[in-house]
Write a structure and sequence with these properties.
The complex is a heterodimer of chains A (313) and B (290). Chain A has helices at 2-28, 34-39, 45-55, 61-73, 87-122, 127-141, 144-158, 173-207, 210-218, 222-244, 246-260, 265-274, 278-306. With 313 residues, chain A is mostly helical. The longest helix of chain A has 36 residues, at 87-122. Chain B has one domain: Orthogonal Bundle (MetI-like fold), CATH 1.10.3720. Helices cover 72% and strands 0% of the residues of chain B. The relative contact order of chain B is 0.17.
């Protein structure tokens, strides 16, 4: 297990380097002079020169690349052009909001998705299964901002159950929860649809196994059969697939935050886009791609930890 | 002497038969047909010119004259929706086509050549998958600048990785089959072997995946348009219509609801079809159902 963990860790290094190279190339794809793009048409020649020097754009390409790698690997992801704060500082300012939202949505997804998925799998090709499959497909068809807008229209504007905008003013935790409810429910619904689908497929596979038949023949009680013998084995692929969903979850939370006007990564990215803050965008890309790589790594390690059948050479 | 190529994964006939049995896929196909008809015959179906501004009819709610209301420039929402289907479908389709061609070519190459080439291409897949899809799309679109072509390129890049994977796995199995071996013995070059002998045996898988991922491409298009990286105005896409309508969300619900429903119905139809297709080509699932 330890050898596998070390090997898996070493395997992440080339991915990380390749990811950084991809970001480097992507940023160099900007048509024309990046400095001119950042400063706009009106910029003076001196200002452009100064910015080029500051960004290291006057150096030959291979030196730019090495500098870039050195900075990124030492955790120096650059600073926002607009505010002057470092990328990590900017992220740390909004991260609690996004974590609150994504955490709540994952919780909703597990609480509703797991039981519904199990139920659908046990009632295969009966109405709970059909209904569940259609509903989860509908849930997965919503772009996150579309469902968010529809919820905003119905629950905030029409019924006025929830505040329309802003959640920075909330003082007490009940107010915060009230503000969090609708965005979290929006993300949570998509998460539920996803968890349910994966759970159903995984449970279907496991419940067809021989050891389930054996356990049933032995007279194991249905509840114990489903949870101990079935779900425990079905959980492994569920954990993996949900781990792989992390990247999509970030994207969906970005869109949800924009619609509900919540502080968080979404507004940070939108702000960076609108102010053409390319260093901030570049830094954000690196930070989040690194997060995905780390989450994938952890998912793989957890997989190895919980599944004794998997033998790693 | 000619090697008879038995399809390795799925026979088109059985896929078609499985589809016919699946009622959900019929709903998907029906909805898709309606949307494609709307896109193709947009000039005949749209009651008004989608670009015609009319200040006298600003933000009219849905009525007998304007079925889905008008926007803040007095343009007819229904007409813009119908014309918007052209751009949304086109972007999704072309982006997936590009991703499909590049992805399956790379996948076959990785599977066939193996070794270093395989490692490099699979490394590329890991890198592509390490970017959150939306962030990668935002980044590429922002770097290239907002235009129709760049939007398509940005979406295509986010969708390449799954095609590489799907083409690579059967290639590894196929290249050891007798008919490929025979072709090699006859002195056929690797390009001919990959293109003529291996590709046709997996094309149905790749196409099925394409329809499945077109839903994702259309969703990404809408999302990028919503954050302002879509096709520049005045061209209407569903995503940009929602973006414009979002500014009036408090007083003009029809500006956001109708394009939202259009996106939802299209993506759902593609997902219904894609799901049925995936069930149809996955032999494990098929035998379970029988």
């Amino acid at each position: 297990m330890i050898r596998y963990a070390i090997k898996r860790l070493l395997m992440a290094i080339p991915t990380l380097l390749a990811m950084l190279t991809a970001v480097f190339i992507l940023v160099r794809l900007v048509p024309g002079d990046p400095a001119a793009v950042m400063l706009g048409d009106q910029a003076s020649a001196e200002a452009l020169d100064a910015l080029r020097k500051q960004l290291g754009l006057d150096l030959p390409m291979h030196l730019q690349y090495l500098n870039f790698l050195r900075d990124m690997l030492s955790g120096n992801f650059g600073a926002s052009m607009a505010t002057g704060r470092t990328v990590l500082h900017e992220v740390s300012l909004v991260l609690p909001w996004t974590l609150q939202l994504t955490g709540a949505s994952i919780l909703i997804g597990i609480v509703f998705g797991l039981p519904l998925g199990i139920w659908a799998a046990l009632r295969r090709n009966a109405w709970p299964d059909y209904l569940g499959r259609i509903l989860s497909l509908v849930g997965l068809s919503f772009p996150a901002f579309v469902s968010a807008i529809l919820m905003l229209l119905v629950f905030s504007i029409e019924l006025q159950w929830f505040p329309v905008i802003g959640s920075t003013g909330a003082r007490t935790w009940t107010q915060q929860l009230h503000n969090l409810a609708l965005p979290a429910f929006n993300l949570g619904l998509i998460m539920t649809a996803y968890v349910m689908r994966v759970t159903r497929a995984s449970m279907l596979g496991v419940m067809g196994e021989d050891y389930i038949r054996t356990a049933r023949a032995k007279g194991v009680r249905p509840m114990r059969l489903i949870l101990r013998h079935g779900l425990r084995n079905a959980l492994i692929p569920i954990v993996t697939v949900v781990g792989l969903y992390f990247g999509t979850l970030i994207g969906n939370s970005v869109l949800t935050e924009i619609v509900f006007n919540r502080p968080g990564l979404g507004k940070l990215i939108l702000g960076a886009l609108n102010s053409r803050d390319y260093t901030l965008l570049q830094g954000l890309m690196v930070v989040f791609a690194s997060c995905v790589i780390v989450v994938n790594l952890i998912t793989d390690l957890v997989y190895g930890l919980v599944d004794p059948r998997v033998k790693y050479k | 002497m000619s090697a008879v190529a038995t399809p390795a994964v799925a026979k088109p006939n059985s896929v078609w038969q499985a589809l016919r049995k699946n009622r959900m896929s019929w709903i998907g196909i029906g909805l898709l047909l309606l949307i494609v008809i709307a896109a193709v015959f947009a000039p005949l179906l749209a009651p008004f010119d989608p670009f015609q501004q009319n200040i006298a009819f600003r933000l009219e709610p849905p009525s007998a004259e304007f079925w889905l209301g008008t926007d803040s420039y007095g343009r007819d929402v229904l007409s813009r929706l119908i014309y918007g289907s052209r751009v949304s479908l086109l972007v999704g389709f072309v982006a997936i086509l590009i991703a499909m061609c590049i992805g399956s070519a790379l996948g076959i190459l990785a599977g066939y050549v193996g070794g270093m080439v395989d490692q490099i291409i699979m490394g590329l897949v890991d890198v592509l998958l390490s970017f959150p899809t939306l962030l990668l799309g935002i980044m590429v679109a922002a770097m290239l600048g907002a235009s129709l072509e760049n939007l398509i390129v940005a979406i295509a890049i986010t969708e390449i990785a799954p095609f590489i994977r799907v083409a690579r796995a059967p290639t590894i199995a196929l290249k050891q089959r007798d008919f490929v071996e025979a072709g090699r013995a006859l002195g056929f070059g690797p390009i001919r072997l990959m293109g003529v002998h291996i590709l046709p045996n997996m094309i149905s898988d790749v196409v099925v995946l394409g329809s499945l991922w077109m839903a994702s491409a259309i969703r990404t298009e809408a999302s990028l348009s919503f954050v302002g990286l879509g096709v520049p105005p005045p061209i209407a896409t569903w995503g940009s219509m929602i973006r414009e309508g979002f500014e009036h969300i408090l007083d003009a619900w029809w500006l956001t609801v109708f394009p939202s429903l259009a996106i939802l119905i299209t993506v759902l139809a593609l997902n219904l079809l894609g799901d049925a297709l995936r069930d149809a080509i996955d032999p494990k699932l098929r035998s379970e159902r029988a």
